[in-house]
Structures are given as structure tokens and as C-alpha cells.
Design a protein that fits this description.
This protein is mostly beta strands and about 850 residues long. The protein has 3 helices and 63 strands. The protein has a 6-stranded mixed β-sheet with strand order 1-6-5-8-9-3, with no helix packed on it. Strands 20, 22, 23, 25, 26 and 27 form a 6-stranded mixed β-sheet that branches. It is flat, with a radius of gyration of 35 Å. Residues about 1-20 and about 750-755 have low confidence and may be disordered.
């Protein structure tokens, strides 16, 4: 990279560009230039680029300023050349990086100023370039405060992480003669060939030969581009182990909230080497666990060991425990000690108090973001599986309850950017098949996936139609009347979904598997959609079938939610449905003849409109979440038992306005779904609350529906507000007991069918930002109890029931997926409000 400054001017008499001879006795220029590199910040974020100031000068003229980068960013030399006399200059150099750049860490910048006589000067500047994707190097062992002694061993462990891969990893010691490497052959690093892993751990053991003093250990690594990064340094003190009667230095690390299978980290150091290390757990003054392991064979003076608490035998949770680390040295006297404050030898004893809480947490794959989740009690041979849509990785993760682990790789055929997920209904009694339906927000299809253990693959992709929302007007002007149709092309990409079954089509409560399964879905908004629908969602329904025969397909855009009385703010709505090849069908599914009027400015929904189906697949509940432009968020309820009027029998042709002599009119089908809640019911909910929807839930039969915002709002099937329960912000997840089959307005009957009423089932589980899960009664709205977990649930929360009738709660936390086997919840509120 070169920059040319000005126009060449070179005088033969005294100019510094005369470098090869000395005519007329003129003295050759021997004075070097000056250069300074400076920055206002020693740490810069990669998003803003790498920026610094260059100041340079020369007694005659500068010729070149050369910049070279190394370390966390490798580039150059980059020259700026001056072709006009330039005695001094100050300028800012900024290096920008692409979004996927792996540059980052400590960057060394060397600036060299060169004059025409070849004299030069240099300055060096270090800037830390912050980048979450940059190479990161960690020295895991030894740790600060480590000690060593002659003839004993010390372990070195280095971890390097970089998304483009690690090419080399190792460590260095200073002075190098303080230790020897007994490895054959001795290595202080290792290199890798492609394909490169994005995370590498390097471990080695060194023998100390120094008799006193200190030595320093530092880890390093190089990524695939050759960028080098280093860890922090650790200074190791070399002590004498002669006649050792001093106990080890012992510390332990433990969180204040732990799960039964969490680990405690114990760290012990002793110049005589550590022979035993372990931990002790007390509760209520009784020892419940005392585990140690013999590590004498390692002859190590610095030992770090992770131990599982292994407290599954605790009878009831939550429970308070006291944990202490423990270690013994390898001296003749065998000196032992428990943890002390800051590891001070023979110092103040330290005991960690922690609360053992419910649940087991498993980390998600790197780069995960969970859109939605659903539980299948039949999965993995009837032991149960949870399916989670991993949106950025475009796959469905499988979590198996029996072994509390994820299936490696999940289901990679889940389609582009899946979000919503629902089970495939078998009947309206709550039974479902080993099949899930996934909304592919990165495309315009739904994926139907067989999740059986031996299969786990895509069955078919359901192509979704393109709906054109149209404003129909007849304009009267000087030249007569003309018909105007304004077309709004909106996003067809699905987002959240639920599945329902049209009743009795398969006989009794069975669902006809070829023509009775429907997906209710919201769309993923795009800014490119025609205004006023840019950034807004719509609500739709699609019959699920693998058929490519257009006669077997059906799609519906729920215009019913926006139908309002004619006014100055409303216009006549017309809708066209288009299916491209291989279907090649275009049809009017709502003509102007039906006279439906909507307010186009408010017809679109929020950009995260949630959809969930009831446990019996007979209802769906919808909540307008995310960014909204209306004064209040909206909710809708859908009943599959409502009459669906559609197809050729609804065809109508008409003149608009009626009786006009110009023949201006419209024609087409007029599909109407009476199962969708009328607009008046939605407006009624709005006028009673006026809230921003964060999450929704519906019970087994759709008779109780919940909306979470500043409170939890309890609604009946008709969307009438029945009551509220408190709900703090910062943790949106909630779900009802799987067996909940109560009508929102009645505490002791189940008129919609479902299990016999039990007040213990009449509860909702609501996440809190402090890590607790509150349990509320959905009729009396009071708190019933609380289930503490280790980490706050910040994503979806789902409750399922396994084949044994046990209730399982799942939630997404910052550290992964937590599963809680729910204890019996005793609801002290009565089954009926009066005898």
C-alpha cells in the first residue's frame, strides 16, 4: 500500500535525495528523522478498527514512513512515500477489519521514518485489539502462587481457542535453565496440520532443577493465519523442602448455588509435593462426603483437581452444604490441611457455604441460540427427549432425559434457521407421533422430521405460499370510475408455530393423517417488505401434506384478526395466494365482494409473534411480541372446532359499488376461518391490559391461556381477562403444569375434557431473574411455592410429562440447558372457592 504526497521537487545542490555523490563539497545528510506513534487508548474494539497517530519530521525532508504490524494482526510493511518536500507530518492511520476477522489480541506496531539519505528512526506501539473471535491463550497451570522445589515436578497446561483453528501451541520458561523437560523427546510446543481444531489443550510436566529463586511460565499459540498470542505469566517460587513440617497451601472454588453433579476445584501447593488431595462436604453438622485421591506418583508441587460433588443422594432440595478443600504433602511428616483464606499456610480456616438446588445443566454446542423447544415422552425408547431448534446452526438439538446428554450433531437436516417447533398430532386426546414440524425462518417452508432414534431425518419440506395483501379501491374521478389495487408483498418466512387437528375427521378424536393436520404459524418480518408491513409479521395456517397436487393444498392468512368496521381509517382488503412451480397456482382467496375492511397501518403484527398449541392439539394461542407499532400488543385464540369455509363453494363475483353501470367489480373465493378469535375479542383484551408480550402459554385443553409481560395475565378461551400474578422482568419463560386442564374462570371443573381436576395441577411455572422459578395458582393467582435452580432461565421454559407421569421442566440458561425433575407441588389453594 503506497500513498504519494505532492509533486517531485529535487534541487541538485543541497537536497537529501542526492545520496550517491557529494558535488561541490556539499555535506551529506547524516541526521536521522524523528517518528512517534501514539494512541489515546491502549485497548480498541475491532468494530471501530485499529487507529493510531503517526507524527514524523526530518531536518530536510521525509521520504517514506513504513508501518509493520505483528502479533494479533500481521500486515505490512505498508509504505507512505512523499515526492514533495515534507519536513513534518501528523496523520491518523486506521485499519478496518471484516466482520469475520480473527485478528485480535496484543498488536505490535513498528513505525519507521526514512529520509532521502537513507537515515531512519523507529518507534514501537502496542495496542490490544479486542475481538471475541480473536485468538485467546490461557495458562491453566501453574497458577499464581505456585511453588516448586528441586527434583520435584510442576505441570504446565495451556489452552488456546480461535474459530479459524489453532496451528501451534506451547509454553516458554524464563530462565530456561530453571527446569528440564523429562518428555522424550523434550518438547515445549506442538504443531498441527489441517483440518485445524478451534480449541486445543497442551499439557506437559517439567522437573525443577533450580535450588532457589523464581522462574516464569507463559503460554503461547498461533492461529491458522500465523497470528501469535500469549497468555498471562505466572511466577513460580522455588523453595527448600528439607525437614518439611509445614502443611500444604489449600484453596477451593465453588459457586454459591450448585447442582448435585457440579464440581469443586481444589488447589494445593507444597514444596515437598502433594500426595493426597480431596474435599469434604458437611450439612447440618454431619459429614455427607469426604473424597480424596492419591496423586503422589506425579511428584507435583502444584496440583489442581476437579471433583464432582456427587450429591444425588441428598434427600430433599434445596439444601445448604459446607465444602472444604483438603490436601496432604509428601514429606516424611505427612502434613495435611483444609482450605484456608487465600491459601495462607496454617492461616484462617475457610469453608464455602453453598445451596444445592434442583436440576442438571448441560452446555449447548458452541454458537448456539435456541429458538424454541418441545418435549416428546416417546423419544429414546420411551425415556423422553427434548427437541430444541438451534437457529444459527440450522439444526435440531436432541436432549435425552435418560442420560442427560445431547445427541452429537443433532438433526442437521432441520432446514435453514429453524425457530418454531411442534409435535405431530395423532388425536385430540394429547397423543402425538415421533415426528416434529419445524418453522424454517431462513426459507419459506416448514420441515417435517422423523425423530425416531433409528431415523432422525427430514421426511418432507412443506412449501409455503406467497400471500399478496391488497388494498381494493374504486376511485371516482373526472374521467369516471377506476379500480385501484395496491399490492403489499410481505414476508412468507415462518417464525413460530403450533399444530392443530381438525376434529373427528379421522373418526372420534383421531386425526386424519393426510388432510387434518394444520400448522398455525407467524412469519419472520423483513425490512424489505412493502410499507406498512416492513418489519411486521402476519399470522397464517397451512395444511400439512407431502402432496404436490395443488388441489390437496390449503393455506390461509388470518385476516379475521384485523377485521374492523368500515371507517376513514380502514380500507377494503383483498388477498391473493400464489404457489410457484411445480404448483404454478394463483388464486384470489379473499375478494372485495366479502367487504372485509382493515386498518392497514395496524394490520401487521409484532416481529416476534409467539404461537403455541394446546396439549390436546385442539387449540392454539398467539401473542404479539417483539417490536410493535400499535398502542397495545394483541393476543389471539384459535379453536380447530370452528367452522372453516373455503374453496370453490365460496366463489363470488360482484360489482363495486353494487349496481354500477361500468362493470367495475371483483371475483374470487372468500375463505373464512371461524375458529380464529374475532377482532372484538382481541380488542377487549387490549382495553383490559395494554402490555408488551414477552411469552405465552396455553394449557392442555386451551381453556386457560397466559400472557407474560409486566405481570402474568390469565385469560379464558374467549380472551377475557380473569386475573394476574406478579412477574419480574428479565426472565420471560413460563409454562403450565402439563396436566393443567382447568377452565380459567372455574377452579374445580374441566368442561373442555382432559384429566380429572386436581388443584396441584392448576399451576404455572414462571422464571425469575434471580434463578428461582415461581409457582402460581392460575385461579387464585397467589404464589404456591418456588423451585430454585443454579442459573436464571433466560430463554424458553417448557414443562413436559414422561411416560411414567413425572413432570420435567426444561429451561435455557446462560450456561446451557437445565432439566429439573419437578417434585410434587402441593397447592394449598382449594379445589373450589366454596363448598
Amino acid at each position: 500500500m503506497r500513498a504519494l504526497w505532492g509533486i517531485v521537487v529535487c534541487a541538485a545542490a543541497v537536497w537529501a535525495c542526492e545520496t550517491t555523490r557529494n558535488p561541490g563539497g556539499v555535506q551529506k545528510d547524516l541526521t536521522p528523522p524523528n517518528i512517534t506513534l501514539s494512541t489515546a487508548r491502549d485497548t480498541e474494539d475491532i468494530a471501530g478498527g485499529l487507529s493510531f497517530t503517526v507524527t514524523a519530521s526530518d531536518n530536510l525532508s521525509l521520504k517514506t514512513i513504513r508501518i509493520t504490524y505483528s502479533g494479533g494482526y500481521i500486515a505490512g510493511p505498508v509504505d507512505t512515500t512523499f515526492i514533495a518536500q515534507t519536513k513534518s507530518i501528523t496523520y491518523v492511520r486506521t485499519v478496518t477489519f471484516p466482520a469475520s476477522s480473527g485478528a485480535g489480541g496484543n498488536v505490535m506496531i513498528v513505525g519507521r521514518a526514512i529520509d532521502g539519505a537513507g537515515n531512519f528512526a523507529e518507534d514501537t506501539l502496542f495496542i490490544f485489539l479486542a475481538n471475541v473471535q480473536a485468538l485467546k491463550v490461557f495458562l491453566i497451570a501453574p497458577t499464581p502462587g505456585a511453588v516448586a522445589s528441586t527434583g520435584r515436578n510442576i505441570q504446565v497446561q495451556v489452552v488456546a481457542v480461535q474459530n479459524s483453528g489453532i496451528r501451534k501451541i506451547g509454553f516458554q520458561t524464563s530462565p530456561p535453565g530453571a527446569v528440564t523437560n523429562p518428555t522424550t523427546p523434550p518438547f515445549d510446543s506442538t504443531s498441527f496440520t489441517p483440518p485445524l481444531a478451534d480449541s486445543v489443550t497442551y499439557t506437559d510436566t517439567l522437573t525443577v532443577v533450580a535450588t532457589s529463586g523464581t522462574f516464569v511460565v507463559q503460554g503461547f499459540a498461533e492461529d491458522s493465519a500465523g497470528r501469535r498470542g500469549t497468555s498471562s505469566t505466572v511466577t513460580v517460587n522455588v523453595l527448600s523442602a528439607a525437614n518439611d513440617v509445614t502443611p500444604p497451601s489449600v484453596t477451593d472454588s465453588l459457586g454459591t448455588r450448585v447442582e448435585v453433579s457440579d464440581s469443586v476445584l481444589v488447589h494445593a501447593t507444597d514444596p515437598s509435593a502433594v500426595s493426597w488431595i480431596g474435599f469434604r462436604v458437611d450439612t447440618g453438622g454431619l459429614v455427607v462426603r469426604f473424597d480424596t485421591i492419591n496423586v503422589a506418583a506425579g511428584n507435583l508441587t502444584d496440583v489442581r483437581q476437579m471433583f464432582s460433588l456427587n450429591l444425588a443422594a441428598l434427600p430433599k432440595l434445596p439444601q445448604t452444604i459446607v465444602v472444604r478443600g483438603y490436601a496432604c504433602d509428601n514429606a516424611v511428616a505427612r502434613n495435611c490441611a483444609y482450605s484456608t483464606v487465600n491459601g495462607v499456610v496454617a492461616g484462617t480456616p475457610k469453608a464455602d457455604t453453598a445451596t444445592v438446588v434442583a436440576g442438571v445443566t448441560k452446555p449447548l454446542p458452541g454458537g448456539s441460540q435456541i429458538g424454541d423447544a418441545i418435549f416428546n415422552k416417546n423419544g429414546n425408547g420411551g425415556t423422553g427427549e427434548l427437541y430444541l431448534t438451534n437457529t444459527p446452526l440450522s439444526r435440531v438439538e436432541i436432549f435425552q432425559v435418560a442420560n442427560t446428554s445431547f445427541v452429537a450433531g443433532g438433526i442437521p437436516t432441520a432446514g435453514p434457521q429453524p425457530i418454531g417447533i411442534a409435535m405431530w398430532p395423532v388425536d385430540t386426546a394429547g397423543n402425538y407421533d415421533d415426528t416434529v414440524v419445524v418453522a424454517n425462518s431462513g426459507g419459506t417452508e416448514l420441515s417435517v422430521i422423523d425423530v425416531r432414534t433409528a431415523v432422525r431425518r427430514l421426511v418432507w419440506r412443506q412449501d409455503l405460499p406467497n400471500f399478496l395483501i391488497e388494498k381494493y379501491k374504486v376511485v371516482i374521478g373526472p374521467g369516471g370510475a377506476t379500480k385501484q389495487i395496491t399490492v403489499f408483498d410481505v414476508s412468507d418466512r415462518p417464525q413460530y408455530l403450533g399444530t392443530v387437528c381438525r376434529p373427528n375427521s379421522g373418526g372420534g378424536n383421531l386425526c386424519n393423517q393426510t388432510d387434518s393436520i394444520f400448522a398455525i404459524y407467524s412469519t419472520t418480518p423483513t425490512q424489505s417488505s412493502t410499507s406498512p408491513f416492513n418489519g411486521k409479521a402476519t399470522l397464517r395456517m397451512e395444511k400439512l401434506t407431502p402432496s404436490v397436487n395443488p388441489a390437496n393444498l390449503f393455506g390461509h392468512l388470518f385476516w379475521e384478526i384485523g377485521n374492523v368496521a368500515a371507517s376513514d381509517a380502514s380500507d377494503t382488503l383483498r388477498i391473493e395466494l400464489r404457489r410457484g412451480r411445480p404448483y404454478n397456482v394463483t388464486q384470489v382467496v379473499l375478494s372485495a365482494c366479502l367487504g372485509v375492511t382493515v386498518n392497514f397501518a395496524t394490520f401487521g403484527l409484532g416481529d416476534s409473534t409467539f404461537v403455541r398449541n394446546s396439549g390436546n392439539f385442539a387449540h392454539a394461542f398467539i401473542g404479539e411480541g417483539g417490536r410493535i407499532t400499535t398502542a397495545f400488543a394483541r393476543v389471539m385464540n384459535y379453536s380447530a372446532s370452528g367452522n372453516l369455509v373455503q374453496g370453490a363453494g365460496t366463489f363470488t363475483s360482484c360489482l363495486t359499488p353494487a349496481g354500477n353501470s361500468l362493470g367495475i367489480g371483483d371475483a374470487g373465493d372468500n375463505d373464512v376461518d371461524l375458529g380464529m378469535s374475532p377482532a372484538v375479542d382481541v380488542s377487549d383484551f387490549i382495553s383490559n391490559t395494554g402490555i408488551h408480550v414477552l411469552s405465552i402459554a396455553t394449557n392442555f385443553n386451551g381453556a386457560t391461556n397466559l400472557v407474560r409481560a409486566d405481570s402474568i395475565y390469565v385469560l379464558d378461551e374467549g380472551l377475557r381477562l380473569k386475573g394476574t400474578s406478579p412477574a419480574p422482568t428479565g426472565a420471560p419463560g413460563m409454562d403450565m403444569n402439563y396436566n393443567h386442564a382447568f377452565q380459567a374462570g372455574n377452579p374445580g371443573t374441566a368442561p373442555f375434557g382432559g384429566p380429572a381436576p386436581n388443584s396441584n395441577d392448576r399451576v404455572v411455572f414462571a422464571a425469575r431473574p434471580d434463578g428461582n422459578i415461581d409457582v402460581f395458582d392460575t385461579f387464585f393467582y397467589g404464589i404456591v411455592g418456588s423451585v430454585p435452580v443454579r442459573d436464571p432461565i433466560i430463554g424458553p421454559l417448557r414443562v413436559g410429562r414422561d411416560t411414567g407421569g413425572n413432570q420435567l421442566l426444561f429451561g435455557i440458561t446462560a450456561r446451557g440447558l437445565v432439566m429439573v425433575r419437578l417434585p410434587p407441588i402441593v397447592n394449598l389453594f382449594p379445589i373450589r372457592s366454596s363448598p
